[in-house]
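During the no-cost extension, the postdoctoral fellow (Dr. R.K.) reprocessed legacy sequence entries with the updated structure-token encoder. One reprocessed record is reproduced below for audit purposes.
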Amino acid sequence: MSYSLIAASLLSLGHGTPADAAHGRHTAAKHHAVKKPDAALPPEAQIIGTINGQVLTERDVENRGRLFALSTGLSISPELMKRLRPQIIRQLVDERIKTQELLKRHINIPPQQIADTIRNIEARNGMPTDALRSRLRNDGVSLSTLIDQIRVQLGWMTILRQEVGGRARITAREIEQREAALKAEEGRPQYNVSEIFVPVADPRHPEPELEFTKTIISELRKGAPFPIVAAQFSRAQTALDGGALGWVQEDSLDPPVVAIVRAMPIGAISNPIQVAGGYDIVTVHARRTVGHQLANLVTLRQAFFPFTSALNPRNPTEQQKQALDRATAAVKRVRGCGAMEQLNKSLGEKRPSDPGNGSSLVLDRMNDQMKSVISHLGIGVPSKPLVSPDGIALIMVCAREQKNVAQQSPSEIADNLLNERVEQASRQLERDLERRSVIKLRPNAHASAQ
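Re-encoded structure tokens follow.
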């Protein structure tokens, strides 16, 4: 994982358990009650609280709840909204505090970086480019709701880089020590895990957070995409990375989590797991043994012929027919990965020429359909046209190799060590900022939108 992904991972949830941050989160901040809202205001404009003087309204809470529903493809009922509400408010309060720190440090996130992040979220969840934006627009949810959330997460990563500073340098000696430790672990199990961490504000009264955790689990089991739910609600350090912890060993997980991941089926969603500072929800994508995991790796290139409108298979437009003709012709004439890259550039690079972003992809982890296509391709030969709702893709294999992917490279070890340091810095800074904050919430803010 690169440094940027490490910090992105910091966004949502971390396996570890920011116990200090969770315990100090809103109890350590200075709380005050605010006056009842002005009855003359429309409900959505009513102020339910202030964070260091910055207002939080019913509209903010409603938009975030609707964003969750739309991005997961689920309908949001009044009952579900009621159960999500306390956590949504807590998340918005934290984001206000972080936004204020961004302004204080004069940190600005370029619009292109936000746009790239949205595209990455769409790609990870099999959504066409701009699909999430379109869904928000069509259902009347302000795009700024999503943009504000992403801006805070990306900005927080920048702050953490500043906080870590010189400690970001990982020495060769530290890498050697970790390599020796991993070698000693050879033969032990590893798990590819994703998690959602829900911190508990008051450990004496964890009932609201437990209820919220159960609600999230229910929606995940109904089909809500784990990466999107993690990005929205996880409070560990992996939100923008979909809650992914990657490959971890048992001693990197909390003991209660270890007991679950040992036994749970691949792809299942766990029940709430009580850990220090809150509750974890985990899913296991795969298992392997340290030092013994051969995998087939492929390096790919692709060209994408975009449609100007969504495809209706029964009534394709003239532009879509022409795109298919051009893709079919390209299959016959394009040879070699360099030619495939040039073709994709001529088409506007609506999808990246290199799906692996500079890295090889594990064939065994691809879905069955894509695995079937790639397994039978010769090197440097385009696939048949692969039609999707937003366009047509051609895939080409540039190289194949078999590798023991259970072994970590020095760069992967360095990333893991850095991730641990950034996680620690994040917990410390969150705790300090919240202790200095003045948070005023309406007495019944968490219980009612009225």
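Confidence is low (pLDDT under 50) at residues 1-30. The longest strand covers residues 391-404. The remaining legacy entries will be reprocessed before the final report is submitted.
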